[in-house]
């Protein structure tokens, strides 16, 4: 299944341009709030297996919002790819490096982002949405708590993030539209292997240089230091995860800061995870 947020209503995307309104198809049993679908995850997935999903309506990708616009919690994991830790010249962590992106930073997949400074960086990420309340979970229970996967960007104002006297990770990563994700939450049965997904980001515009287009990230989830089930299990030893919670799982190598590359007005960044989808963000001055 591919669950999305179309004009603040939960929908199932049945092909690239057609979606079925979940509340209408279920006669009001599920939705219309996107988060309510995840709060009733087991009942919803059982219904969806036999539901009549004909009669979908055409939609525009620009109308898609964040698949979960109002999660109770948003987690983000730092230094979680071997090649990214290497490019940052930092040791591979022995424990999760955790911060949050405040919920007001979440946005749909194809938003325009206003740049608050000249030091905004990109990080393409696999995003996970939780489907069951989870606390002190082992790896098997943690894996069963996954509702699905999405494409996300963890934009960061590095100036704010790294200013003293102590780093401000969450604040520097939470400007408006700094947490776009989508286009949908894709269930695991739609993917060959969530642990081996290719992740790419293609930059076009002034900061891409004379060529005009530049592939800035090209990695794979096989390079994760902490796989998704381990992330969920480790987080759950401390916190209780709730249905609809969102986890940004980290980024592969190729972020801008190590190479002195930052986003500029007029740039466009296209982020893709194979099997899940693509999102495109454009950047303007504030």
UniProtKB/TrEMBL annotation:
GO molecular function: hydrolase activity; metal ion binding
A Pfam family that the UniProt record links to this protein: FAA_hydrolase
GO BP terms in the entry: small molecule metabolic process
InterPro entries: FAH, Fumarylacetoacetase-like_C, Fumarylacetoacetase_C_sf
Fumarylacetoacetase-like C-terminal domain location: 74-283
Keywords: Hydrolase, Metal-binding
PANTHER family: FUMARYLACETOACETATE HYDROLASE DOMAIN-CONTAINING PROTEIN 2A, FUMARYLACETOACETATE HYDROLASE DOMAIN-CONTAINING PROTEIN 2A-RELATED
Protein family (similarity comment): Belongs to the FAH family.
Protein name: Fumarylacetoacetate hydrolase
Source species taxonomy: Bacteria, Bacillati, Actinomycetota, Actinomycetes, Pseudonocardiales
């Amino acid at each position: 299944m591919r669950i999305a947020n179309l004009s603040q209503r939960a929908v199932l995307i049945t092909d690239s341009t057609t979606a079925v309104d979940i509340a209408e198809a279920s006669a009001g049993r599920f939705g219309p709030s996107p988060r309510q679908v995840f709060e009733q995850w087991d009942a919803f997935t059982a219904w969806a297996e036999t539901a009549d999903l004909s009669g979908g309506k055409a939609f525009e990708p620009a109308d898609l919002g964040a698949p979960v616009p109002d999660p109770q919690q948003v987690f983000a994991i730092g230094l979680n790819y071997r090649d990214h830790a290497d490019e940052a010249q930092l040791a591979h962590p022995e424990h999760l490096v955790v911060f949050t992106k405040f919920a007001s930073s979440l946005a749909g997949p194809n938003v325009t982002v206003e740049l608050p400074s000249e030091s905004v960086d990109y990080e393409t990420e696999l995003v996970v949405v939780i489907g069951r309340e989870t606390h002190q979970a082992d790896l098997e229970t943690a894996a069963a708590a996954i509702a699905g996967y999405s494409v996300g960007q963890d934009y960061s104002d590095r100036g704010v993030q790294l200013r003293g006297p102590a780093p401000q990770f969450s604040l520097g990563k939470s400007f408006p539209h700094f947490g776009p994700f989508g286009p949908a939450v894709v269930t695991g049965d739609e993917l060959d292997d969530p642990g081996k997904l290719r992740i790419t980001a293609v930059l076009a515009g002034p900061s891409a240089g004379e060529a005009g287009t530049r592939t800035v990230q090209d990695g794979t989830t096989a390079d994760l230091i902490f796989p998704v089930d381990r992330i969920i299990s480790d987080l759950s030893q401390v916190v209780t995860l709730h249905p609809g919670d969102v986890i940004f799982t980290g980024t592969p190598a190729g972020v801008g800061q190590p190479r002195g590359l930052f986003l500029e007005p007029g740039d466009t960044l296209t982020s893709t995870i194979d099997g899940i989808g693509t999102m495109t963000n454009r950047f303007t001055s504030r």
